[in-house]
Amino acid sequence: MPITEPAIHALNLEAAIAHTPICVPPHTPVNEVLEQMNRVKSTSCRLEDSASSPLNLQTLSSCAVVQENDKFLGIFVERDLVKLIASGKSLEGITVGELINPSPVSVRQSQLQDIFSVLPLLRQYHISHLPILDEGDRFIGLISTETLREILQPSNLLQLRQVAEVMTPQIVSATPQTSLLDIAKLMTRTQVSCVMICQRGDGKITQIGTGNRGDLKPLGIITEGDIIQIQGLQLDLSSTPVQQMMSSPVFAIGAEDSLWIALQKMQQHHVGRLAVTGIRGELRGIITQTTLLNSINPLEIYKVIDVMQNTISALEAEKIELLQNRTTELEKQVRSRTAEQEQLIASLEASSQRDRLLAKVSLQIRKSLNLDEILATTVEEVRQLLHCHRVLVYQFAPTREGKVVAESVESGYPAILDIQVRDICFQQMHGIDYLNGRNQATADIRQAGLSFCHQELLEHFQVRASLGVPIAIQGDPAHPHLWGLLIAHHCNEPRPWQASEIDLLDKISVHIAIAIHQAQLYQDTQLELAERHRVEAALRSSEQLYATLAEASPVGIWRTDPTGKCIYINDRACEMLGLSRQAALGDGWLQSLHPQDRARVIAEWAKSTQFHTPFACEYRFCRPNGEVSWVFGQTLAEMGPDEEVMGYIGTATDISDRKRAEQALKTLNAELERRVSKRTEELEQTVQQLQGEIQQRQQAQQELILVKERLQYLLWVSPTIIYSCQVQYPYSTTFISYNVFQILGYEPKQFLNNPQFWWDCIHPEDQELVETGFSQICDRENQSLEYRLHHAEGRYIWVQDDFRVVRNAQGQAIEIVGSCVDISDRKLAESELQESEDQLSKFFESANDLIQTVDAQGKILYVNRAWRETLGYSPEEVQHLFVSDIIHPHCNPRYHQLLSTLNGDCTQTVTFELKALKSNGRAVFLEGRLSLKNEGNRSKIHGVFRDITRRKIDELKLQRQAEVLQTIFDNLPLMLVFFDGQGQIQLLNTALEKTLGWSLAEAQAQDTFVQCYPDPEERQKILDGIEAGTGEWIEVKARTRQGRELEAAWANIRLSDGSGIGIGQDITERKRSEAALRHSEQLFRSTFNGATIGLVHSDIKSQFLRVNQKYCEILGYSQEELLLKNCMDITHPDDVEKNIQCLKPLLRGEARECSFEKRYYRQDGSIIWASLTVSLVRQPSGEPDYFIAAVEDITDRKKAEAEKEKRDRYLTALVEIQHQLLNSSVDTDLYEIVLRILGPVSGASRLYIFENSHDSQGCLLTSQKAEWCAEGIESQQNNPNLQNCPYEEFFTRLPNTLGKGEIIEGIVSNFADSERLVLEPQGIEAILLLPLMVNGDFFGFIGFDNCKEAQPWDPLEVSLLSSAAAAIALAKERQITQAALARQLAAVEAATDGIGILNENSEYIYLNSAHAKIFGYDDPKELLNKSWKELYHPPEIHQIEQEVFPVLGASGQWSGETLAKRRDGTTFPEEISLTYIAGGGLICVARDITTRKQSEEQIKASLHEKEVLLKEIHHRVKNNLQIIHSLLKLQSSYTKDPLTLQMFRDSQNRIRSMALIHELLYRSTNLGSINFSEYINQLTTNLFRAYNITAHSRPEILINVEPIQLGIDTAIPCGLTINELITNAFKYAFVDGLSGTISIDFHKDGADTYELKISDNGVGFPADLDFRNTESLGLKLVCNLTRQLDGEITLDRSQGTCFTIRFQELTYQPRG
Fold first, then answer.
1. Cα 646 from Cα 674, distance rounded (Å)
2. How confident is residue 540, by pLDDT bands cut at 50, 70 and 90?
3. DSSP H/E element including 367
4. Where does the CBS domain lie (predicted)?
């Protein structure tokens, strides 16, 4: 029904009246009133104990009504008390009557119309409480802003406005230390109800005042109500700081939020004020409940309601018109229904066959990836279904040719499989059509207008009719690819193709396109996998290349684990340390640190490993040979894929030469320091003189700063902007006061730095005014303008700009000075006044009644819009009209007569109707009132009229109604008869007379009743119907006047006066139709029950009416069970809404039938899919009667489609995974990529990836690294039990099963107890685990959890997910390899030696920065793709090609020195190492050895000097020993004692053996060792001479000595031993002239062991003598010297005497 009243009128203003406020007499003390208000306020905090709303209680607690003897005197509010407190007066002895306003603002209840009559009063008088009085001035209640907001819920309007539009930007603020008394004074002075307690953003406290500073941050708020409550606590307001009593925190809102959000926050927190803050929390304004009410504009609300009313009215009219147009013919539907249903059943049967074929094709695609097999099966099935002679699949080639790739042909017709077809005409004419999705159906190729070549081609294959549909691959939806055609041929005769056949081929072509796309995806995946394997092999080869590069580098390189333990070191680093590689690993390298550097380096290294910072340090190494070298060591952290530190990689560069140069620089710096010190003393004297002058200048500057600060403070606190500018355009600003920031929000420098900035701030509409004013200033001296300036917050403010020109002594204008004052408030008041006048004018203009004002002479003074629109006059035409011009001439006398009744001085009103003339001359009827108003000597007649033309027209229609009814009575096709209370016929219509044959006169004169109904029973039916008069239809058999039998139906209605009306119709034809209908119904039932698809009849509420046997078989119910159910009872819940929506177009008459698919619940609980085709049967009246549905079971087809969709989904995901992994960088989180793609596709509840690791004992652990969870599934990412979990506790069979590459899959309830204890707490019902094999090792696994049902994964899913796991493992291998390569490349780039790689063409393909710098190049790119010959002169190139390359080709490596060429042409010595790369190419490591060569030359010179000196030393030692030998010999000549002589001789021989060593050393070219074979020969010769043994008397000496070199430290003790043992043999082995043999054997026994054997065949060593424990000096020396050699000595007495000594050469540390 139409809505005639606006919704806003429904608001009950009574609900906004608080009827029970605090009421007190005027003599009540203020303290008592305060206590009552605080008591109510505390009650409002307990909402559960109060029946009133919180806002109502808030209103009651914020005021008190003062009345005496039921007479209202005034109202006492919180603001009155705050004023009293601010005045400093005591509350004692003051009554409430002294504080109230003697003339309070109030309103009578009868004057209240709606809330919009209250809001203007609250705004006008700036009050928050409005008392309501009755006609006797008795208090009824009061309305406040809180109660109005409580009943007013304008959510839609508030949502359309933002807080920034209505907030109060001027904030009254105070510091937290301000006293409550000062706060009360501030409230009184500024007329506000609250003060914001703020702190500046920089931590400074603001001063008390008003402002809108951007650096204020709210800390709390204090309101008038708070002051009143505090006063009730008897606190000292002057000494209590506000921070102790303020409300904190302040509830804040953003300026961009809507007013609706502000209202909700106020209601949620039960507050009346919200702070408006910016994004940094700075204070921007405040919003209150009053602000919300002021934001509601009544006119906007009425406009919205008016639009809603018009819309609803239009909808109602449209609905009525639609119902009137919905008429149907039931008999026509009954006759056509049977034929339609038969056609429907036949079409459903054909549709079922086509769907089964589509399902079979889809299933074939799902089961196989073999495209040829799919196409062959498809064409065979299609040919059998279409009963045609040939079906084929034709594939287009990139050229104009094509090929038949699949064919099914009936025997007797030629096969064209694998035949290449070239049909240029066909592609030119139809290729684009096919690409656009058009089909080509040709019933007869001879009549289709085909080109001659195309027709000839078809006739060659005996084709007469052809049907072709495109096969388009939707790889790119915007550019589909036409792959080929699916074609059906009929050969022996023309054939018109049916639409269903075309549709079938169209759908099958889609499935074929999917199969082709699927096969292409599978092929692309295989190609990508092959490419991936190739890339991985290349990466591994590159890794080997960089490993070789690291080993060949002349820079020391090492790697450590995360704790700093060395795990790798190259040969160059071992050479620097002087240690073997094994000894340097772990912490071994620290032992080679110089003692003075060890503590510092260890501390820096510990700091680097602890905080993962780079390590860079210079320190010294002490080699075992005593050499000290300086190195520069640096390390970088190796980061893993998850940004964790995996270890450190470092390099060490030998900087010994640089350190020596630095030492020389230190000496030079010391001399420079001495000179600088002297110069500094001279400068200090000069500085002291300058400081005196600077101090004087600073005093003068301080005075200027004080003056400037005073002036800035005055300008800051001033509300006026002071400025000066140039007198010429663009009037550039030369000065502006800093308070421009307070007023406009801009910094002064913005105006000073940009001459155009002031003009950019001026409103575009005001710029011309300002330009004119400034251009005239020189003529007018001073000027005052009002215009708008743009504020930094985005709004405009009005300013009054007063400026004048300043002139110099010559009268020339030199500057303009001015001041600007903010006049926005004044402008706002003027705007509100104008708005009020505009609103009144808009009210008259928007009124629907005609309003006019005329003067006493009839001149029209004013008319409104409705007047002009109704009468058709423009505003210009109205200015010249008189009343007589618009009044119809027939009504002029009546109008003047009415005017004559309006006389006198008082205002009079008359009401009348008259006819007026429109501008086009047409007449309208008006009803209205005239009122006379005298204004001094002038009189005005005001008129308000309403157009009643429509009412007049309706009255005329009523007059014609009787005529219409009579016409209807006479012409109605139904028989009508009127009879009186006695049953006498009074009236009958023409239809009765024509049907029965009796006229009215004949019916009244004769007893026609018996003639018409000769059968008594029929007559009685009529009489009973007349008597009952209920209007029910009665069917009787009647006879006409002519004697014709007919069947009639009568309805008799008894009127209140006893008379009645009879309505009858001839139903003879209808009866015949009903008989035919029953026959049709019988035929329908036989068809219904015998159909091969399910058929259902249900009412419009889905209750089953009829079902056939097939439908019962589909659902497993009996007919009796289904007829007791509703269709929705067995429909799947998720499909109920879709079912309803599909039937709505039938009910609305928008469609004749609809088709859809849905799920049913069978009787056994299983779910099946069915395809439904539904139509609606309507009643004769057009109302819906019941539904007819044809139902077919499509469960198998749906399963096939689901399987295919699943396969496609998985294949698409796999392709995406492969694409992402191939394009991912080393740092990409591979796991996140894969899980994000696989999660939604797999249908699993949770996906996760675990990685393996080992603990310190080597136990295999696993940890979760990534996870994806479906919505509603609890994450296990932070489960500590899944980190570093031993397999033996977690899943004992995981390592053995997954480690072999096998999978684990199944229902968790079937697992072992230990496994279920881990899985069931996570809610896992079924699980699938797939191994990740990286580089052939068990790296981890990927898992899939099903937490919703115990449903295992089918083989297809397992196969496809296994492919994803394999892709992850390959990507992880590549990521690990790339990370290793990146680390090695970082080490190479950090090396100080030049490293380069050349290809098989001897061109550089890689160089590090050091390599380029060695040869004088800034960027390595300058040498890329250039030959190595660019860096050498021709002689060197020739030498390298002739000498180096042959060796390199034979051994694969070469190292040596060459002479290289720099970029500037200079040469330098280069140490170069070349390594051959398998497959072609070289690795080149180069080092500039210029410094080393210079050092070597110096060392060679030094070594030569040392060699000469050492030879001289050996010579002098030999001479000294020879002197001692001579002295002993001389001394022995003075004794005759044989024993003494023997002692002297032995000592001489010993000295001689030592001297012989020094003699051999200074004669040898090698000063470090002697040829011991030569030494033994000379030693035995000397001993022969010493003992005077001749060739005839001496024993034979057999010397078997290898040419062995021994150092001096080993040769001396070894020589003394030989001397003692040979001497002993001379003395004791051959007594009494016995001859014999002495043998000396000396050789190496093993790698570093020597064996000395001295034997003789003399008398032998005494058996009772222990050579180790004897008094013999010689044997003691032999034993001691053997121990000195760390050797072993043995004695063999079996064949004479044989001493055997085994020892190793001594290696002593150099003496420092």
1. 51
2. low
3. helix 330-367
4. 17-91, 100-160, 167-237, 246-304
Which CATH number, 3.10.580.10, 1.10.3720.10, 3.40.50.150, 3.30.1850.10, labels domain 156-294? 3.10.580.10
CA 820 centroid distance within chain: 50
Residue type at position 680: T
Q: Which CATH superfamily is domain 839-947 in?
A: PAS domain (3.30.450.20)
Q: Which two tokens stand for residue 504?
A: 């079938």
Global pTM exceeds 0.90? no
- Separation of alpha carbons 795 and 1005, rounded Å: 97
Looking at every residue in the chain, the average pLDDT score rounds to 79
Q: Distance from CA of residue 18 to its chain's centroid? A: 52
Check whether domain 718-822 has CATH 3.30.70.100, yes or no: no
In angstroms, the CA 809 to CA 411 distance is 123
Strand extents, DSSP E, 1318-1466: 1326-1334, 1337-1346, 1394-1398, 1404-1407, 1453-1461
pLDDT at res. 318: 60
Beta bridge partners of 815: 806
Q: What is the homologous superfamily of the domain 1393-1488 according to CATH? A: PAS domain (3.30.450.20)
Query: For the segment 1044-1070, what is each residue's pLDDT rounded down to a tens digit?
Result: 888 888 888 888 778 888 888 888 888
Has domain 971-1066 been given CATH number 3.40.350.10? no
> pLDDT tens digit string along 1187-1245?
988 899 888 888 888 877 877 777 788 777 777 776 766 455 778 888 888 888 888 88
Q: For the chain, give every domain's residue range.
A: 1-152, 156-294, 355-525, 555-654, 663-715, 718-822, 839-947, 971-1066, 1072-1193, 1200-1383, 1393-1488, 1570-1712
Strand duo 1337-1346 + 1326-1334: pairing: antiparallel
Q: How far apart, in whole angstroms, are the C-alpha atoms of residue 1648 and residue 1225? A: 55
Percent of the chain with pLDDT over 90: 5
d(CA 1566, CA 1563): 9
**pLDDT given at position 817:** 86
Find tokens 């083989």 and name the residue. Answer: 1355
Q: What DSSP line would sit under 1626-1689, residue for residue?
A: HHHTSGGG---EEEEEEEE-SSSEEEEEEEE-SS---TT--TTS-S-HHHHHHHHHHHHTT-EE
Q: Read off the tokens for 90.
A: 């005591």
**Helix, strand, coil in percent for the chain, rounding step 5:** 45, 25, 25
- The CATH number of the structural domain formed by 1570-1712 is 3.30.565.10
Among 1599, 1578, 1581, residue whose Cα is nearest residue 1590: 1581
280 near 220, Cβ under 8 Å? no
- Contact between 1282 and 1236 (Cβ < 8 Å): no
Alpha carbon distance, N-terminus to C-terminus of the chain: 118
CA 1282 to chain centre: 28
The per-residue pLDDT for 1700 is: 93
Q: Per residue in 1657-1676, pLDDT tens?
A: 888 888 888 888 887 778 88
Structure-token match 């396109």, residue found: 513
Question: Which positions ≥6 away from 1177 have C-beta within 8 Å?
Answer: 333, 337, 1184, 1185, 1186, 1187, 1188
251 φ/ψ angles, rounded to the nearest 5 degrees: -75, 125
CATH topology for 1200-1383?
Beta-Lactamase (3.30.450)
CATH topology of domain 555-654: Beta-Lactamase (3.30.450)
The per-residue pLDDT for 294 is 67
Position 1114 pLDDT exceeds 70: yes
User: How would you class 867 by CB atoms within 10 Å of its CB: exposed for 0-12, middle for 13-18, buried for 19 or more?
Assistant: buried
Q: What distance in Å separates the CA atoms of residue 735 and residue 738, rounded to the nearest whole number? A: 10
Distance in angstroms (rounded) separating the CA atoms of residues 222 and 246: 5
